[in-house]
Amino acid sequence: MHALDGITALEKAKQFDAFLQEEQISSFEKREIEDDEHTIVYRSFIQTGLGDMPIFLLIDDTIYSVIRVLMGSKIVTDENRNDILEFMNEANSNYKNFKIYLEDVDQSVYLDCVNQSSMTHFDPRLLYVLMTQIVDYLKENYSHIGEAFHVTQVPNPFVHEG
Amino acid sequence: MNIKAQQFIKYLEDNQYPWFSYEELNDTYHSVIFRGHLEVGKVELPMLVILDDSLFSSLRIGVYMGRIASTRRGFVERYLGELNSRFKAFKYYVLEEEAHENIVLDISLPCTSEDFNPDMILYLLREVTIPHLNDALEGILDVVKVKRAPRKTSGKASLKTSGKETAKTGAKRTSKKADKI
């Protein structure tokens, strides 16, 4: 079987930038992360009934592109942990287009959708469709999410930004 | 039959790959389920490839099927959550059946019918999933407190790894520093 190494991050970013321009979408900030995989991050925000949640598109030199939502920054406590675990397992078994997980390092809850691209094909339009589906899920289910988190508003994840 | 399934069947036939049987479901998405087994160490794990008209192709592996003691359930979910955090390509969860629980590993492959690549299915199973399970399976069974691994089943040939390195696949987690922009 031939190797399926991805297109470079730079080439993917070029294609994604062209797509954003074509569709006149201006809601993303872009930044290059200087790491081994040349990760490039696009960031925007989703407005939900629980407040704004940052959504990221992470592209790099690997075959994986990751759409990531920070659902709740440092949201997990001893009081809500079991409810959050139950909520995550339920969502992960019911929805095939993403996964929700807890990051132990900072006790935050994330939603990830991972797309694998081949050596010759990267599809910005597909990624945007996937993002749209995620936005719809969060907007339709914010009440249920808030119950699991025991909050009516999610914390501002950039409260310490200068 | 949906286009992805047609392409996958042709791909399996052209390459004479014996690992799957398949069944068409009469559902909204014209789903076709391909059934087989993954060889992980000395055991065979049941696997499904689910192809339909939606954007998502799903690979599903039955990692464990049996009872999970209520006293272990919380530990299991936390451990699976740790795996979900560490490995971006994989999604673990507990699926409840009538008399037992299943620990399921899902790999989702978003793509349109036009861009469907059967090679990617086999690559993800052989080069990414099997090596991962070779490392992870024992830990999962340990947290369930199962004393022995599932029995090897007889029947169709099992899908095995080709033994190639997966270092370039990036299956491990994306650094969270990228989120802090």
Please explain how this structure is put together:
The complex is a heterodimer of chains A (162) and B (181). Chain A is of the alpha+beta class. Chain A is 33% helix and 28% strand. Chain A contains 3 helices and 6 strands. Chain A has helices spanning 9-22, 81-94, 124-149, and strands at residues 29-32, 40-48, 51-59, 64-72, 99-103, 108-116. In chain A, a hairpin with a 2-residue loop joins strand 2 and strand 3 (51-59). The model of chain A has no long low-confidence stretch (mean pLDDT 90). Chain B has 181 residues and is of the alpha+beta class. Chain B is built from 3 helices and 6 strands. Mean pLDDT of chain B is 84; it is low at 164-172. Classes of the chains: A alpha+beta (162), B alpha+beta (181). At the A-B interface, strand 3, strand 4, helix 2, strand 5 and strand 6 of A face helix 2, strand 5, strand 6 and helix 3 of B.
